[in-house]
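cache lookup: miss for this entity combination. No prior model stored, computing from scratch. Input as submitted by user K.M.:
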Amino acid sequence: MLELGIKEIREKILKHELTSEQITKAYIDEIKNSKLNAVVEVFADALTKAREMDKKIASGFSGKLAGVPIIIKDNILVKGKHASAGSRMLENYIAEYTSTVAQKMLNEGAVLFARANMDEFAMGSGTETSYYGKTFNPFDITRSPGGSSGGSAASVGGNLCAAALGTDTGGSIRQPASYCGAVGIKPTYGRVSRYGVIAFASSLDQVGPITKSVEDNAILLEVLSGRDENDETSDITPVANYTAFLNKDIRGMKIGVISSVEKMMKGLDCEAYYNKMKQFLTKHGAQLVPVEVENMELALPVYYIIAPAEAASNLARYDGVKYTFRDKDARNLEEIYRKSRTQGFGKEVKRRIMLGNYVLSSGYFDAYYNKARSLQAKLRADMLKAFNNCDVILMPSTKGEAFKIGAKVNPVDAYMEDMFTVSANITGVPAISVPFCMGKNNMPVGMQFLAPHFEEGRLYRVADFVEKHKEGK
Amino acid sequence: MEYDVVIGLEVHAELKTNTKCFCACVNSAGQEPNTNCCPVCVGLPGALPVLNKKAVEQTIRAGLALGFNINRTAVFERKNYFYPDLAKAYQISQLVKPICVRGYLQVGNKKLPINRIHLEEDAGKLVHSNDGSTLVDYNRGGVPLIELVTEALEEPHIESADEAIAFLEKLRQVYIYAGVADCIIEKGQMRADVNVSLKPKGSKTYGTKVEMKNIMGFKSVHRAIEYEIARQKDILDDGGVIEQETRKWDDDKGMSFTLRTKENSEDYRYFPDPDLLAVNISEAEIENIRKTMPPLPDQLKAKYMGEFGLSEYDADVLLQFKNVSDFFNECVAEYNQPKTVCNWITTEIMARIKTETGAGPILISKQNLVWLMKNVDNKKINRLNAKDVLSAVWGTEKSAEQEAKARNLIIDIDTNALDEIVNKVVLNNAGVVAQFKAEQDPKILNFLVGQVMKETRGKANAGDVMAKIKELTK
C-alpha cells in the first residue's frame, strides 16, 4: 500500500477500497520507523485532517488530490504550522498565512501531513546542512539523498508519502529525485507561484512536484500551476492539460544534444548512462539533433554569483529582531544582529551570504553581478535559439549515482553537483529528471530533459515514454 | 574669506494612495501600533511585494507637475541595510532607472534643476519607551514615498537657507495642488535631508559636501543649514579641511553631530529586486495623467494676476492654502468679481481659518458668501451688518439671506422715507449742522450720518445718506 502514488490512492479512496485516514496513518507509522530522517515533523492534526477529508469525500467531494497524503518541503508555509527551512534561525517560526501552492493542493483535497527535511534555506546538494540533521538515501543509508529537497525525494523514494513538494533553485528537485529514484520537475520560472515559499534566490526559485510516476507528476503540477495575483513573477500563460501528453510515442521527436554539455561529462559516470539514453531514444524513433549552447559550463559560476547575491538580501530579514532566533545574551542592537545571525545560521548559509554581499558590494558589482547577468542573458538567448531546432534537450541530471554521506568536504565539490541542473534555472526553462537505470553501485540514476518555456507537456511526453519503455519494464 | 554656498536637497513625501506601495494595507496614519500591516509589509518569510499601480501614477503626476521626463521603463531595486524599522532589511527603492528624470522648480527668479524623483517604500517607526526599551511600529512600513533629489552641481542652485526653505515651500505647494501628497509636516509626510558645501567665491571647483539627516520641519532645516554654513566657514577660515560625512541635526541643542564619516559609510549593495517586474509606462498613460492634472500654483497665479488683475501679494495669499484658492475659484465662478471675492477671502475668511501651522477648514458655503458679497455690492446690506451675518452663519447650516432677514438688516427703506429721516436729523441737530457748514469737518459729517443710520436701524446705505446730508447742508 505504501508504494502507491497519487493516482492510485485517490482512485482507491473514491472507490471506498481505502480511506485517507488509513493511508495517512500507514505513512505516519512508516515515518516513525524510518531511519532516513527525511521528515522534520508530522503535523499533530494529520489524522484529524485525513478523517475530515474522508467525510468530505463521503459527501461527494472528488478533488484531483482527494485524500492523498502529501509531504511538503520545510520552506513551504501552511498557516499555523512550523516552517523552518532547515534552519535554527526559524526553529520556532509558525506560518501566519498559507502559501499559494499549499492552498491549491488543499483545495483539491490533499492531506498535507508532514514537512520534509532540507538543506538549510535550500543551500546544499546533499541535505547535509540542515539544522535537523542529515537525511539518508532510501536505497543505501550510507549515501546522500541529494539536496536540497533531499527530505522530499527520500520520502517519495522511501515510500513515506504518496508524493512530495520540493523547490528547485539550481537543481534541488531534479538532483535528489535522480538519486532517490523519483520523478522531479522544475517548472518554467513563473509557472508556479512563489507566494508563501521561503525565498532562497527569488529569480531562480520554483516549486515543483517529486513523485513516484510521471503521471502523478503531471497531475500534481497541473494543480500547482497558474497565475497568482500575490506573485508578480507568476505568468499568465494558460496552464496546459499535462496528462494529455502521456501515453504517446516519441517517434519523430527531435531531441537536442549539446556538445558543450557532452564535454562536461568526460570522465564522469553519467556519460555511460547518457549514451545509453541516446541509444534508447533513437531505438524508439526519436531523432537526435546536435544543438549549440555555447559555454554551458559557465551556467554554474553564473549561478553561484546570482543565487548568493539574492540570497544575501533575502536572508537579511532574519535578524534576531522579530520572529527569528535571538541570542539571549545580546546586549544591544549590534549584538542582536551579530550574535543571532552567527548562531542562527549554519556554515554554508553564512558562506553564501558573504559571497552574495561580496559580489554586490561597490567596486565588485560590475565585475561579478553585472557580468553574471549579461552571461545569463547570453545563455538564455542561446538556449531559446537551440529550441528552434529541437523539441527537448537531453542532459544528465547528475554526475552519477548518489554520493556517500560526508564525501563532499570541499564546498566547490558540492557546488559541482549542480553542474547539469543549473542551466534550466539560469535560463528559466522547465526541466524534468526521470528515473532511467541503475548505476554501477546499483543506485538509481535519472536523466534530464529540458523544454522551451511553458512546454512542460513535452517533458511529460518523453519522460512518460522513458518510464514505460526503459530496460526492465 | 568669502564663500559661495552650494545646497542640495533630498525631499521625501508620502504619496496619497488608497493602499500601501506593495500590499493591500490601507495607506493612512493613526492606527494602533502594528495593526495596519500584513505579511508583505512586515516582510514575513515567503511574502512577496505586488506593485500598487496608483503609486506609480502619482509619481508620474508629481514628475509632470515639475516638468520631468518620464522613463518608459522603470526598475525597482533593493537598498540593503540593517535597521529594526526596516522589516526586510532592505528597502524597495529605485537607483538606476527611476520613474522621473530631469525636472525643475521655479523659485522666485531661479529655475532650479532637479535630478530625479523615484518611488520607494517608507520604513516603520521606532518608539523609545521610558524604561529604555525600544519598540517597533510597522504601520508606516510600505507606505509609498517619493524621493526628489535636486541638482546641486549645476547653475542655478540653492545658495542659502532662505532659498532652501522657499524651494521646500514651493515644492510642497506643487505636490498639494497636483494632488499627489498632503505633505503635512507635523505628521512627517514631508521630510528633507540637506547637503551643504562651500567654495571660495567664484571658484569653479565644488567643495566637499556634508549631509544632514533627520531634520524635522522647515524651521529646523533653516537652522541646520545656517549652522552648517557657519561651521564650515570656521573650519575653512582656520585653514582646515571639510570631511565628507553625514551629520545628525539636534534641534534642541541647535547643533549637528557626526553620524558617520566616509570611511564607514554604508554600502547599500543595490540590485534589481527579483520579486518585481520592470514597470513599463506608456505614452498614453502619461498623456492621461497630463490631461487630468489639476491647475498648479504658477498657472493659477498667472491667471489671478493677469485675467483677474489681483496684486501679486493677494495672489500669493490666496494660493498659500489650496482649500482657500479652491474656494476662491468656486466663488469667482458664481460671482465674477475677483477683486471683491479676493478682498473678502483674504480678510474675513483667512482671519477665521488661519492657524499657527496652516489653515483650517472654511466653514461657510460659497452660496452664503456670494450672497453677502452681492448684496453688499448692490447696497442691499451694510458691510458691517454683512460681516455680522457672516459670523452668525459661520460653522452652521444657516442661510445668510434668511439670517439677514431675520435680523431685519435688508436695506429696503424707500427714498421718500429716507429723505424724511434725513430732514428730521438735520432739523433736530441745527447746532451741529451749523458747525459742519462752517468747519466742513468730516467727523461732524460722520456723526450726522450715524444719527440717520441709527434712526433707520442700519437699513440705509451710508454712502447714500452722506450724499443727502451734504446736499442739504450746502
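stored under new cache key. Chain A touches chain B through 42 residues (CB under 8 Å).
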